[in-house]
Each structure stands twice: as structure tokens, then as C-alpha cells.
Amino acid sequence: MNTIQIKDKKFSLSIPEVEIQAAVRKVAEAINHDIAEKNPLFICVLNGAFMFAGDLMKNVSIPCEITFVKLSSYEGLYSSGSVKEIIGLNESVVGRNVVVVEDIVDTGVTMERILSSLRAKGANDIRVATFLQKPDALQRDIKIDYVAMQIPNDFIVGYGLDYDGYGRNLKDIYTVVSE
Ligand code: 5GP
Ligand code: MG
Ligand code: MG
Questions:
Q1: Name one GO biological process term (predicted).
Q2: Number of neighbouring beta carbons within 10 Å of residue 127
Q3: What is the ipTM of this complex?
Q4: Residue 27 pLDDT > 70, yes or no?
């Protein structure tokens, strides 16, 4: 199906599963190459990154740990601009190589907040792996080490990303159709 309805919005298919999977495998290969000896701690940012993290980690073949944190900054179609505290990071990051695994870097406000928190907690080397990036929306000076795909500045759902809680289960990416 190329068009779907979620609540009051129509969405059309924009990135099919095969393209997503190929792009995710490339990120995993780059990580395998870059930090093989670093015993990294991957930090998956819930909820949105759960699907990317699952597929990514199946293709990461180096010794590593994986953990999960949660925070929220987004309501409906627009970023609220405020990010709540990181919840659930029980592991010490002191002196460690960490890789933050995110669904999407939009304005960069969320990632800036995560990065400053990890720096304050004493992480040694902090890398960012994001499934999607909207280059035109970036408002913060942050270094993003791994990007699976870049997309235009439109609202999308699927592959972990939601519209008002729905659509996370879709295996393809859909873009909102503006009326
Ligand atoms: P930022 O702080 O970079 O502006 O926004 C980051 C968060 O906003 C992401 O982790 C994601 O939850 C949400 N977000 C940004 N753009 C989109 C989008 O196009 N679709 C969905 N579903 N969420 C988005
Ligand atoms: Mg996110
Ligand atoms: Mg959301």
C-alpha cells in the first residue's frame, strides 16, 4: 500500500524497507571498522530508535554492550524544543566509548542535550549514529558520526517513528501528505 491514513493525516510511502536495510547495514559496517577494539557501549534512545537499534546491532559484530534510555521532546508534528532528563542510564560511562543510537536528528536540540549529559557523566569518546537526519532543519553545531539516510524537512513516520503514538511498527518510511 503506497498511501496510509493515521488519525487525521495521510502519509505516502517514501523509503521502502530494502533501502532502509541496506543503509543500516552500511552504518554497521562503518562502526565495525572504526571502533572494533573500543568495547563500546551503545545507548539506544527510546522510543523512536528501537527498530533502527535492533537492525543495526544485528549487523554490529564487535564486542560491545547495549543499553536503553528514554527522554521526550516532541508532541504532534512540531518539536516542543524542550528535552526532559535522560532516564534509565544505569551503566557508568566514565572513560568509555559510547555510541548514541537515535532515530532522527531534526533541529539537533535533543542530541545536544544527550551529548552534554554524557560528557558531564565522564564518557571518553562519544559518537552519534542516527537513522535519519534532516540537514535543512539542523540548528545546533553537533557532530554526527554515522547517518543511515538524509531526508528533506518533512514529517515522516514508520520504522520506529510515530505520529501521535501510531506508525512505529511500519517497516517502511512514510511522509506526510500536505493538504
Ligand atoms: P530534535 O531535537 O533534533 O529537533 O528532534 C529530535 C526528535 O524529534 C526525534 O528523536 C524524534 O522523536 C522527533 N522527530 C523529529 N522529526 C521527526 C519526524 O519527521 N517524524 C517523527 N515521527 N518524529 C520526528
Ligand atoms: Mg529520538
Ligand atoms: Mg515521536
A1: GMP salvage
A2: 20
A3: 0.97
A4: yes
CATH number for the domain running over 3-176: 3.40.50.2020
Distance CA 9, CA 11 (A): 7
Residue 172 appears among annotated catalytic residues: no
Tell me which residue of 150, 168, 28 sits closest to 99, measured CA to CA: 28
Mean pLDDT of 46-56: 97
Our answer on whether the CB atom of 28 is closer than 6 Å to any ligand 1 atom is: no
Q: Looking at ligand 1, which residue's alpha carbon is closest to its atom 13?
A: 74
Which residue's CA lies nearest to atom 11 of ligand 1?
104
Does 110 contact ligand 1 (Cβ within 6 A)? yes
Ligand 1 centroid–CA 37 distance in Å is 32
Q: In angstroms, what is the span from residue 159 Cα to ligand 2's centroid?
A: 12
Annotated domain spans of the chain: 3-176
CA dist 114 and 103 (Å) reads 13
Ligand that comes closest to the CA of residue 43 = 2
Q: What is the mean pLDDT of the chain?
A: 93
State the burial class of residue 57 (Cβ atoms within 10 Å of its Cβ: 0-12, 13-18, 19+).
middle
pTM, 2 dp: 0.94
